[in-house]
Amino acid sequence: MSAQTVCVIGSGYVGLTTAACFAHLGHDVVCTDIDADRVRRLKAGECPILEQGLDNLLREGLAGGRLRFTHDNKEAAGAEFIYLCVPTPQGDDGSADLSYIESAAREIGPVLTADSVVINKSTVPVGSTLVVERALGRSDVHVVSNPEFLREGSAVHDFLNPDRIVIGAEDQSAAVRVASLYLGIAAPLIVTDPASAETIKYAANAFLATKISFVNAIAAVCEAVGADMNDVVLGMGYDKRIGHEFLKPGPGWGGSCFPKDSRALVKIADNAGYEFDLLKGVITVNTEQFDRVAARAVDMVGGSVDGVTIAVWGLTFKARTDDLRDSPALEIISRLRAGGATITAFDPSMPDGKVDDHKRSALEGIDVVDSPYAACEGAAALLVLTEWDEFRWLDFDKVGELLAAKRVIDGRNLLDRESLRRRGFAYAGIGRV
Ligand SMILES: NC(=O)c1ccc[n+]([C@@H]2O[C@H](COP(=O)([O-])OP(=O)(O)OC[C@H]3O[C@@H](n4cnc5c(N)ncnc54)[C@H](O)[C@@H]3O)[C@@H](O)[C@H]2O)c1
């Protein structure tokens, strides 16, 4: 495969993974960010995010000279391909805020080489290729959509082993050129128009959010009728049309994508004249799930958490990431704190209990400690909110001794209910009593 020159604008979860993986595939990659401290750390080979395998690819790319970092977006000048991987947060009215995309495009527009290809990897609403074209102010470069489907926690694996690669382009030759970047990756390739590519990304995220909200709603039914949700999902999942993936009840969905992308899709549909009531319901069920899990903890300790200490295991929005953005754990904790609870928490992404400066505001008022056992000391109940595998293998005799009362609310149905009950714990899971 011949090496291509790629510039990746934005070195966050998606940008850094894209840059490191393209360098791994043999391309010549420069990755930019406006965050000077992040660029400094990356240049020194320090991976600023927790993502399995990413630190190795970073060091490999730097050592091989195929990956470098800069804060200057104008270095896009020499690249044949320019990936936009900047944030698209939720705007005030629920729609995606494209200001980061537009500002990056305005900055690089004047320096781009003719016939280069600018690619939206950020999640952007239908019509965004036109927004980028306008902001670039260039009629001699191509704008293509190439949405990203990686999952945090397995980002490198997902990038290098995708379920599919989607490219949306008006110009077929530009699509073929973008596809050539992925030579060496075996995956179905879908080449379509930009609007369809953009819609595929939102539809996929909305469907996954729907699957989780559906399962959480069934869990509520299970609790009401006395069924066991774990057995119900097992029985459902063996149906090949349903499948076991993403069929686990929990504290609700969160993270940096599902909440903003589901609201953005409601808005996209609304703007186009379609009331997406189904997706609105999915969002409502999710908010109710935060309430329901918090209420289970309140019930477990006798009806009020005022003045009560609750131990929490897991703060990140899912396991194997350090990402706290829109974490269900934080939603549930904020409800308990509003009821007067004190929270002592442990998360494996902060093993020494130290909170980075950029996470401090998200964790304000939470006492983050350096071990799962320390979190339990004197607490009235233990609440499990992120599915870190290591929580399953702890010494629950010791946990029972440390807690003021042997009570567990298992927000992920992660722990062994029978073994806990044998040890004298009161146990409440999601969709199982
Ligand atoms: N995180 C995911 O799992 C995921 C998966 C698929 C798609 N996406 C989408 O990808 C996009 C990026 O998400 P992310 O999670 O990587 O965000 P992020 O916040 O982790 O990273 C974005 C980076 O862009 C930088 N940045 C902002 N403006 C810039 C500019 N003008 N020039 C250079 N750098 C700039 C920021 O400093 C930040 O480091 C979003 O649209 C998101 O919806 C995210």
Give an overview of the whole structure.
This protein has 433 residues and is of the alpha/beta class. Helices cover 40% and strands 13% of the residues. The protein is built from 15 helices and 14 strands. The strands form three sheets. A six-stranded parallel β-sheet has the order 3-2-1-4-5-6, with helices on both faces. Helix 15 links the parallel strand 13 and strand 14. The protein is globular. The relative contact order is 0.09. The model has no long low-confidence stretch (mean pLDDT 97). The protein binds nicotinamide-adenine-dinucleotide (NAD). Nicotinamide-adenine-dinucleotide (NAD) binds next to helix 1 and helix 4.
- The secondary-structure class comes to alpha/beta
The set of bound ligands, ions and cofactors reads: nicotinamide-adenine-dinucleotide
Helix fraction by DSSP (H/I, runs of at least 4) = 40-55%
Strand content: 5-15%
How many individual β-strands?
14
Largest sheet: 6 strands, parallel
